[in-house]
Write a structure and sequence with these properties.
This protein folds into 3 domains: about 150 residues, Sandwich (Immunoglobulin-like); about 350 residues, TIM Barrel (Alpha-Beta Barrel), CATH 3.20.20.80; about 140 residues, Sandwich (Jelly Rolls), CATH 2.60.120. About 20% of the residues lie in helices and about 30% in strands. The protein has an 8-stranded parallel β-sheet. Strand 10 and strand 11 form a beta hairpin. The protein is globular, with a radius of gyration of 27 Å. The N terminus is likely disordered. Belongs to the glycosyl hydrolase 51 family. Its EC number is 3.2.1.55.
Length: about 650
C-alpha cells in the first residue's frame, strides 16, 4: 500500500507529505469547453484607506512628521532638547510657530531664535522613528527665510537613540526671503528608529517651513514618491482595480472633516492638513499624532492605479458624515457642491487639457486622461437619507457622463434591516453595482460560500468591497491574520468566483498597517519603518488575483457545485490569454482529502503546475521574523488521461494550472 501511494504522489507531481490512508476521496468534473460567464478584469482588486498610518508614515515615503507645523499642536513631532525655556539669557535657542491667517492651506511656520551659537537643535521623531538603510541616499528639502543672514549654516543629521550620528549633510541659507534649499545625505548604518536632528550655526532668527525628507529609491524613482517595497507588494497582486481613499475616511466624523479631493491636488506645500478620523477612534490604540498631509492625494492615487495596472475607483462623500459618529447630514438644498465635486473629479480624471480640471491634471504631469470608468457615491451609508442623496448624484452624473459606472453602498453589514432596506431600494433604482461589506468570524466565511448562488442575475452587480475574517471579533485589537482566517476567506472566494456573473469586484480590507501605529486588525500587509510583508491573507488574495482567468467553468460533484460538502470548496476557470485551465481547491477539513478531477472536452498538456498554500496550525501567522512562513510552494504536476489526481493537505488552498494544447 505504501509503495502504491508513493507512486501515486510521484505521478501527480505533488510534493505534499503526510498523505493518510483514511483521506476523504472525492471525484469532481470540469467541462473545459463550456463557459458559464466571463470573469471581469476587476474581479480581484485592492482597497486603500488611510488607516493604521497607511499613507503618512506608510505608503507615502515622507519621513518627517508634521513637516509644515500644521498639526493641531503645531510642534507635535518636534523637540528642543537643549533649549532652556526658563531663562531668556541662557538658553541656546527657542522655536515657536507663527500663524499667517491669510494663508488658508498652510498657515503655520516655525520661527527659530538662536542665541550665541551654542548649538541649538530641533529634532523630529518621524513616524515612530525613521527607517534608514546603510548606504542609501536620502533627499532633504526645506523652506527657510534667514533674517539678515543670521544663521550661517544648518546641519542635518540622522541620529539613533544614543545620539550617535548615522549620516550628515548641511545647507547654507542665503536669502532673507523664503527660499527652498535641497541636499542629500547617505546613511552610514541601518536603523529603524532614527531621528532627524537639525542644528543651527550662527545667532539670530530664521524661519522654517516644509522640512521634508524622502528616500531617493522610491517607486518608479519618482521624486518624493511612494515606498518601493510596499508598492511592489501591491503590484505583485496584479489587482484589477484600486479603490481609494476609503472607507470611513471618505465620510469623516463630521462633514467638515470629510475627504475633499480638491484639497489634495496641486502643489504639495499648498495642500491643507487634516486630522485623521482614526486618530482617537479606538481607546485600545489612540493616535493623537495621526494627521493627513495629503502628499498622497487624488492625483497620486490615480497615478498609482496606472502604475500597478489597476482601474481607479474613487469613492466620494455623498453629504453624510459617518453614521457611527456624528451622522451629520448636508441639507438636500445644499447638496449641489458635493455633486459638483463628483462631476469635476470625472473631468479631472478624463477631461481634455482644454477643460478646467483636465488642464490641472495636465499641469501636474499627466496630459493623457486616467480613463476613469467607475465612481462610488458614499462609503457604507444607510437609510432613506442615503437613497435620497444617491438619486441626486446618479441623475447628475448620468446626465453628463452616461457611460460612467456608479457604485452604491448597502450599509456596513451583510444582513439586517439596513442591508435589506438598502439593497431593496437600490434594486428598484436599477443600481449598477452595490458595495457589500462583511467582517465576520472564519466559520461565517465558510458557511457563506453560497451567498450569491441565488442572487438575481438581472439585478445589480456586487462589489464585495470590504471583507476580512475576524479571528476574535470585529474591531478587536486581538484579531490576528492567522491561517484559519486566510483559508476561510479562500473558501468564501471560491463562491465569489463561482458567481462571477453577479460578483464583479472584490477586495480585502483594510489593506495595510504600521506595526507600531495600527488602529484596526487584521490587515493584509504589515510594515515597519524598514520592512513590509504580506500576511497569510495576502497570499490567498494573490493566488486568486493572479489566477483569475477570463472564463468561468463549472466544477461539480455528482452534478452539483462544490460549495463546502465535506469541507471541500472549489472553483474553475480558463484563461484565453495564457491558454490555461485553472482549478482552485480549498480543503477546510482537519484531515487530508484525495480529489480526482475529470477534465472534459479539451486537449491539455500532460504537465502542469500546482501551487500549495498551507500551514501546520490554525493560529499560524506571518511576521517580520518569518515573513513567508505561510506562502505558496510550487511543484510540477502530471496529468493522466485527462484526469488529475490530487492529495489535498488538511487546511490547504491549492491552485492547479494546466496548459491547453
Amino acid at each position: 500500500m505504501k509503495n502504491n501511494l508513493i507512486t501515486k504522489i510521484t505521478l501527480c507531481g505533488l510534493l505534499i507529505s503526510g498523505f493518510f490512508a483514511n483521506a476523504q476521496k472525492t471525484t469532481l468534473e470540469v467541462d473545459v469547453t463550456k463557459t458559464i460567464t466571463k470573469i471581469q478584469p476587476t474581479m480581484y482588486g485592492v482597497f486603500f484607506e488611510d488607516i493604521n498610518f497607511a499613507a503618512d508614515g506608510g505608503l507615502y515615503a515622507e519621513m518627517v512628521k508634521n513637516r509644515s507645523f500644521e498639526f493641531e499642536a503645531p510642534m507635535m513631532g518636534w523637540s528642543q532638547p537643549n533649549s532652556d525655556r526658563h531663562s531668556l539669557n541662557t538658553r541656546s535657542g527657542f522655536a515657536k510657530t507663527i500663524n499667517v491667517s491669510e494663508n488658508k492651506t498652510n498657515p503655520n511656520f516655525c520661527s527659530v531664535l538662536v542665541n550665541d551659537d551654542k548649538g541649538y537643535s530641533l529634532i523630529n521623531e518621524g513616524f515612530r522613528g525613521m527607517g534608514v538603510k546603510k548606504d542609501s541616499k536620502y533627499n532633504l528639502s526645506i523652506k527657510a527665510a534667514n533674517h539678515n543672514g543670521a544663521i550661517k549654516k544648518i546641519v542635518f543629521q540622522f541620529i539613533d537613540k544614543n545620539k550617535k550620528v548615522l549620516g550628515e549633510t548641511a545647507i547654507v541659507p542665503t536669502s532673507n526671503d523664503w527660499q527652498t534649499y535641497t541636499s542629500q545625505f547617505v546613511a552610514t548604518e541601518t536603523e529603524a528608529k532614527a531621528q532627524l536632528k537639525i542644528t543651527f550655526v550662527g545667532s539670530g532668527t530664521i524661519d522654517l517651513d516644509m522640512i521634508s525628507l524622502f528616500p531617493e529609491d522610491t517607486w518608479n524613482h519618482r521624486k518624493n514618491g511612494l515606498r518601493k517595497d510596499i508598492v511592489q507588494l501591491l503590484y505583485d497582486l496584479k489587482p484589477g482595480f484600486l479603490r481609494f481613499p476609503g472607507g470611513c475616511i471618505v465620510e469623516g466624523r463630521t462633514l467638515a472633516q470629510r475627504y475633499q479631493w480638491k484639497k489634495t491636488i496641486g502643489d504639495v506645500d499648498k495642500r491643507e492638513t487634516l486630522i485623521n478620523r482614526w486618530n482617537t477612534e479606538f481607546d485600545h490604540k489612540l493616535a493623537p499624532d495621526y494627521f493627513q498631509t495629503f502628499g498622497l492625494g487624488f492625483f497620486e492615487y490615480f497615478q498609482l492605479s496606472e502604475d500597478i495596472g489597476a482601474a481607479p475607483l474613487p469613492i466620494l462623500s455623498c453629504g453624510m458624515a459617518c453614521q457611527f459618529n456624528s451622522g451629520e447630514l448636508v441639507p438636500m438644498d445644499e447638496l449641489n457642491p458635493y455633486v459638483q465635486d463628483a462631476l469635476d473629479l470625472i473631468e479631472f480624471a478624463n477631461g481634455s487639457v482644454d477643460t478646467p480640471w483636465g488642464r490641472i491634471r495636465s499641469e501636474m504631469g499627466h496630459r493623457k486622461p486616467f480613463n476613469l470608468k467607475y465612481i462610488g457615491v458614499g462609503n457604507e451609508q444607510w437609510g432613506p437619507e442615503y437613497i435620497e442623496r444617491y438619486k441626486v448624484f446618479v441623475k447628475a452624473i448620468k446626465s453628463k457622463y452616461p457611460a460612467m459606472t456608479i457604485v452604491s453602498g448597502s450599509g456596513p453589514f451583510p444582513e439586517g434591516d439596513y442591508f435589506e432596506y438598502g439593497t431593496t431600494e437600490l434594486k428598484k433604482l436599477n443600481a449598477e453595482i452595490v458595495d457589500e461589506h462583511y467582517y465576520k468570524n472564519p466559520k461565517w466565511f465558510r458557511d457563506n460560500a453560497t451567498r450569491y448562488d441565488n442572487y438575481d442575475r438581472k439585478g445589480p452587480k456586487v462589489f464585495a468591497g470590504e471583507y476580512a475574517a475576524q479571528s476574535v471579533a470585529i474591531a478587536s485589537p486581538d484579531n490576528k491574520n492567522n491561517w484559519e482566517c486566510a483559508f476561510s476567506e479562500a473558501a468564501f472566494m471560491t463562491g465569489l468566483e463561482r458567481n462571477a456573473e453577479v460578483v464583479h469586484l472584490t477586495s480585502y480590507a483594510p489593506l495595510m498597517a504600521h506595526a507600531e501605529a495600527w488602529q484596526w486588525t487584521p490587515d493584509m500587509i504589515w510594515f515597519n519603518n524598514l520592512e513590509a510583508y504580506g500576511s497569510a491573507n495576502y497570499y490567498v488574495q494573490k493566488l486568486f488575483s493572479t489566477n483569475k482567468g477570463t472564463d468561468l467553468l463549472a466544477i461539480t460533484k455528482d452534478g452539483k457545485p462544490v460549495t463546502g460538502q465535506n469541507d471541500l470548496f472549489a472553483s474553475a476557470v480558463k484563461d484565453i490569454n495564457t491558454k490555461e485551465v485553472i482549478v482552485k481547491l480549498v480543503n477546510a477539513s482537519a484531515n487530508p482529502q484525495d480529489v480526482s478531477i475529470d477534465l472534459k472536452g479539451s486537449n491539455l498538456q500532460s504537465k502542469g503546475i500546482v501551487e500549495t498554500l498551507t500551514s501546520a496550525k490554525l493560529d499560524d501567522v506571518n511576521s517580520f521574523e518569518f515573513p513567508k512562513k505561510i506562502s505558496p510552494t510550487e511543484s510540477e504536476f502530471k496529468l493522466k488521461n485527462k484526469n488529475a489526481q490530487l492529495s489535498l493537505p488538511a487546511h490547504s488552498v491549492i491552485v492547479l494550472k494546466l496548459k491547453m494544447k
